[in-house]
Amino acid sequence: MRAEPTILHVDLDAFFASVEQRDKPSLRGKPVVVGGIGGRGVVATASYEARAFGVHSAMPTAEARRRCPNAAFLAGRFHAYRETSRAVMELLRGISPLVEPLSLDEAFVDLSAADLADASVAGVSALAHELKEKVTEVTGGLTGSVGIGSSKFIAKIASELDKPNGLVVIAPGMEQDLLRPMQVTVIPGVGPATAENLRRIGVHTVADLEAVSEDELVRVLGKAQGHGLYLLARAEDDRPVVSEREAKSISVEDTYDVDHVDRRILDALVDRQATKVTERLRKARSSGRTVTLKVRLHDFSTHTRSATLPGPTDDARTISRVARTLLAELDTSGGVRLLGVGVSALADWIQDDLFSDAEDIEEEAPEPEDVVALARLGERRYWLPGLDVVHTEHGQGWVWGSGRGVVTVRFETAATGPGRVLSFAADDPALQQLRPPPEA
DNA sequence: TCTGGGGTCCTAGGACCC
DNA sequence: TCTGGGGTCCTAGGACCC
C-alpha cells in the first residue's frame, strides 16, 4: 500500500466485441458474441447489448445462442485485437515506463515512475480523464474503464466499480471502508472453490475474512493463499508493477467437435500441435526441456503427462515423438475431446541438431550494423543429443568431438572478422575434447 | 445443446543427493 | 545397524485469470 494513489489499472470494455463493432458498423448497437462458434465453443466476450440477454464470458456458445438468437456470433480476429492492444500499451508506456500488461485488454501502470506533477486524487483523476480520451482516439472509438488506488489490488477493484467507460479513484486511507462490505469473491484469486472453502467457515464478506486469524486461513487454504488473503483482507498489497515478464511455457490445445478414438488420428493431431508449438518456440527464439501432453477424455476428466529431456529442444519431431509416447500411456479408448501439447522449462537460447543447423545460422546471421545483437548471437549453445561425432560450421568455423551434454561455441562473425571458431566449452568432460578440425 | 484456449501459480509426493 | 533432515528436481493435478 502506497501513501499516494499511484497504481492505475485499465480494462478495455468488452474488448473483442468492441473491436468487431468498430470495424463493422452494422454491428454497432447490436448484440455481438465473440468466441468459439463450433458445437463445443464458449463465449470469450459478449457486447453489452448481448449481456442484456444474460450472455457472458465462459458461457457455452450453444447456451448463448439460446438466450440471444439474434446476436452476431463471431470466431474472433486476433490479429486485429493484438494491433489494437498494442496501440493502447504504447499509449500507456508514454505515460510511464512501468506498464504491466495482464492480457490484451488489461494493464497496470505505476504512476510513481511517471512524470507526474500532482499525485493527489485530483491530479491522478485529471490524468486518467485525459488517458481515457486518448484510449478512444488510438483505438478508433473503444472505451476503457480505469481504476486508481494505492495498490494493484485496489486499482483493479476500482476499475470494476463503474464499468463500462468508468473512472474510479480510491483515496488512500479509504481502502478498508470500500472493501469490508464486499463479497470475498471480488478478491482476485478467490474463485468458486476458494469461495466455497471460505463459506464453510462462515466467511462471505471481506469483513468476515478480516476477522479470521492467519493460522486459520493457512489451515483452510494452504500456506500461500492463506497468507495472501490475510494480507488482502487488510488491503495490504505491496506487489510491484513488473513491466518485463518472460514467458514460462508455450502450448497449443484443441477441443474437437467429436471425440476421437483412432490412434492414428490422435497421433496425427499431436503431430500437428507439436509443429505449431515449434513454430511459436522459434518465433520466440526459445526452446524448452519439458514436453507436456494434455488430454481431456469423453467424460471431461483431464490428464497431463510430461517428460523432461536432458536438454532443451525446438525440434518438432522430438516434441512430437515425446508427446506421442506420453499419449500412449493413457487409456483413450473412451474417446478424446481435447488434446494439447506444451513446452516449458524454457531456455532463451536455441538447441540444435548440429547436422541440420547450417541454414538456421544463416537465417539468424545478425545485421552487420547491429552490434548489440551480434554480441548475443555470437555465442550460441548447442545440445548434443548423444552423437558420436558432432560438427557444425558457420562461415569457416568448425567444432567437433564426441559426448553428451551442453557445449558453448563462440563464433567470429562477418562483423568481427572472418568466420572462425573463437572458443568452445562444454559441461561434459567428453566434450572438452572438442577441437577445431585439422587444417584441410 | 453442457463445459475454449492461453497462460500462471501452488501443492504434494517421490527420487536423489549431501 | 538404524535413522536424520534439507534442498532440488520432477511429475500430476487443481485453482484461477482473462
From TrEMBL:
The active site is at E106. This is DNA polymerase IV. Its EC number is 2.7.7.7. Its main location: cytoplasm. Pfam families: IMS (PF00817), IMS_C (PF11799), IMS_HHH_1 (PF21999). Gene3D superfamilies: 3.30.70.270, 3.40.1170.60, 5' to 3' exonuclease, C-terminal subdomain (1.10.150.20), DNA polymerase, Y-family, little finger domain (3.30.1490.100). It comes from the Bacteria. The gene is dinB. Binds 2 magnesium ions per subunit. It catalyses: DNA(n) + a 2'-deoxyribonucleoside 5'-triphosphate = DNA(n+1) + diphosphate. Monomer. InterPro entries: DNA/RNA_pol_sf, DNA_pol_Y-fam_lit_finger_sf, DNA_pol_Y-fam_little_finger, DNA_polymerase-Y, DNApol_IV, IMS_HHH_1, Rev_trsase/Diguanyl_cyclase, UmuC. It is an enzyme of class 2 (transferase). GO terms for biological process: DNA repair; DNA-templated DNA replication; error-prone translesion synthesis; SOS response. Belongs to the DNA polymerase type-Y family. Transmembrane segments: none annotated. Poorly processive, error-prone DNA polymerase involved in untargeted mutagenesis. Copies undamaged DNA at stalled replication forks, which arise in vivo from mismatched or misaligned primer ends. These misaligned primers can be extended by PolIV. Exhibits no 3'-5' exonuclease (proofreading) activity. May be involved in translesional synthesis, in conjunction with the beta clamp from PolIII. Keywords: Cytoplasm, DNA damage, DNA repair, DNA replication, DNA-binding, DNA-directed DNA polymerase, Magnesium, Metal-binding, Mutator protein, Nucleotidyltransferase, Transferase. The record marks F16 as: Substrate discrimination. PANTHER family: DNA POLYMERASE KAPPA (PTHR11076:SF33), DNA REPAIR POLYMERASE UMUC / TRANSFERASE FAMILY MEMBER (PTHR11076). GO terms for cellular component: cytosol. Its cofactor is Mg(2+). Residues 7-191 form the UmuC domain. Mg(2+) binds at D11, D105. The keyword Amino-acid biosynthesis does not apply. One of its GO terms (molecular function) is DNA-directed DNA polymerase activity. It is found in: Cytoplasm.
